[in-house]
Amino acid sequence: MTAVTAGPSFARRWASAAVLSISLLVITVDLTILNIAIPDLAADIRPSAAQQLWIIDAYSLVLAGLLVSTASLGDRFGRKKMLLLGYAVFGIASALVLVADSPGQVIALRALLGVGGAMIMPTTLSLLRVIFTDPAERAKALGLWAAVAGVGAAVGPIAGGVLLEHFSWRAAFLVNVPFMAAVLIAGLAILPESTVDSPGRWDGFGAGMSIAGMVALVWSIKRFAKDHTLASAPALIALAVAVIVLAAFVFRSLRRSDPLLDVRLFRRRQFSAAIVAALGVMFAMAAALLLLAQWMQLVQGYEPIETGVRLLPVAITATLASIAAPWLAGVTSARIVLSGGLVVAGIGMILIDASGPLNYATLVAPLAFVGAGMGAMTVASAMIMSGTPEEKAGNAAALEETSYDLGNVLGVAVLGSVAAMLYTADADFGSVPGIDPATAEAAGESLGAAMAIAQQTGSGALAEHAAAGFTASLQTTGLVGGVLLLLVAAGVYALTPKDTDITQQAH
Questions:
Q1: CA angle at 191 for the pair 189 and 193, rounded to the nearest 5°
Q2: Is this model's pTM higher than 0.85 or not?
Q3: Are 492 and 338 in contact (CB under 8 A)?
Q4: Considering only CA atoms, which of 121, 140, 125 is closest in space to residue 14?
Q5: Are the beta carbons of 63 and 114 closer than 8 angstroms?
Q6: Secondary structure (3-state) at 500
Q7: Which residues sit opposite 2 in a β-bridge?
Q8: In 3D, which of 173, 151, 196, 174 has the Cα closest to residue 21?
Q9: Contact 157, 32 (CB under 8 A)
Q10: Which residue from 50, 137, 282, 483 has the fewest beta carbons nearer than 10 Å?
Q11: Cα–Cα distance for residue pair 344/32, rounded to 1 Å
């Protein structure tokens, strides 16, 4: 069982939900702000191509590696303590950017932010599970939590654009500090402490296995994407290491009476279905939003802040759907809402290809559909938590956050690579008048390279050719992602028990 120091009142429960949701808002805003800040950062401290990649990747590698361990430690020593420590680590790492003046120091700060994020993300979910003992009320709290996360992802580029217009790239880090200070103070005053009674011995060796396996897995996926080939030797070696280590970790967890991560949770069909749904929706969405942001900036010529504003339909419909999804699940069923959300998102992805010549007007409806599908994932969180005993809340939260993180990395790697290969295969820059073979080969590597060369050479034909090639690859990738989502929706519908009720707690 889970021990909570006090039974929170109605006001304290919802104040706690607000604090936990704002925590997640800061994390999601920080992720998308960095995408906007990278060009200014690169111009200032001049990282090499490898260092720039590590600046981007360090956060997700550390986060993926530590989610299981931090959630398990929080179960043992106090989820509130873990969360508050995460706030402090995240805030300090953000403030230290003031003295960071080399790529290596920024990489270290990004890794430290990953440590703080790993302490915060699963703990917000496990505390919501414990604070809201009524599953129906918890579903509404999870709706708030998911809605705030959706807003954060959309606000990031807008906030980043505003900050970079007036300040340096360091502001993208420093903006976290006052928010973390505020939630640290509020958390101290409002959040109840929660621990698991008799959690068993800490499995240090298992923790090391989970960290090594997850870091190797995420790194291998990113390396496959970077090399644009499945024959990448470093990526294949890392993937083999990940498979071996994670398989051994699962075997170890199944044999122990007090495992670091209770993988037996996957025996519950509603739990497994929700995890698959979270993984699937992030797989498609992360790549789609990244490619659309590139298209808006490099093809349409929008500034970062203009791009952020134009992506708002995703945030608006995601927010509305997050709030409405628990109610819809009560009117129909959790099974229908969850699989239906995936279908809606899949249709949105397919419409990117099916809506004819691509322009912003034809994108509004697909973006709204995609956001609505993302918002339906509130039901996935409710299914995970209503299908999990209190003492396993940390395990369940870690697995849900891991599925989102892995879905994000896989989506960008796989669908991003599909888009890159389609662009390269169909580009045929040799047919552009006045472009020599060497220049054509360089332009075919990426849209960014082609646009930079077009600007340097003054070749409008090259820019137009590159834009058309990227647009075509984006639309085909949308079709691929949409079909994959429809397949995931069918699997989730089949896997979810017909009588799944998120207003009832499983035991």
A1: 115
A2: no
A3: yes
A4: 140
A5: yes
A6: coil
A7: 196
A8: 151
A9: yes
A10: 50
A11: 24
Tokens linked to 156: 């990031």
Query: What is the Cα gyration radius of the chain?
Result: 22
> What is the DSSP code string of 115-182?
HHHHHHHHHHHHHHHHH--SHHHHHHHHHHHHHHHHHHHHHHHHHHHHHHHHS-TTHHHHTHHHHHHH
Element (H, E) at 418: helix 393-427
421 Cβ partners below 8 Å, 6+ apart?
228
Beta bridge mates, 194:
4
Where do we find the tokens 């030797």? 233
CB contact at 8 A, 346 and 485: yes
pLDDT tens track of the chain, all 507 residues?
454 444 678 888 989 988 888 888 777 777 667 766 777 787 788 887 678 778 877 887 888 888 888 888 888 888 899 999 999 999 999 999 988 888 899 999 999 999 999 899 888 888 888 888 888 888 888 877 777 776 676 677 677 777 777 778 888 888 889 989 999 999 999 998 887 776 667 788 888 998 899 888 888 887 887 776 777 898 899 999 999 999 999 999 888 878 888 888 888 888 899 899 988 888 887 777 778 877 887 788 887 778 778 888 888 888 888 888 888 988 888 899 999 999 999 999 999 888 778 888 888 999 999 888 888 888 888 888 877 777 777 778 888 888 887 887 778 777 877 787 777 766 666 566 666 666 666 666 666 677 777 777 776 777 777 788 888 888 888 898 899 999 999 999 999 988 887 777 665
End-to-end CA distance of the chain: give it in Å, rounded.
Answer: 11
Task: Say how far apart CA 478 and CA 138 lie, in whole Å.
Answer: 34
Q: How far is CA 488 from CA 335, 485, 492, in A?
A: 13, 5, 6
What six digits make up the tokens of 1? Answer: 């069982």
Cα 277 to Cα 407: distance, rounded to the nearest angstrom: 10
Of the candidates 139, 161, 118, the residue with the CA atom closest to the CA atom of residue 27: 118
Local structure of residue 505 (DSSP, 8 states):
-
Number of CB atoms found within 10 A of residue 394's CB: 34
Q: DSSP states of 334-354 as a string?
A: HHHHHHHHHHHHHHHHHHHHH
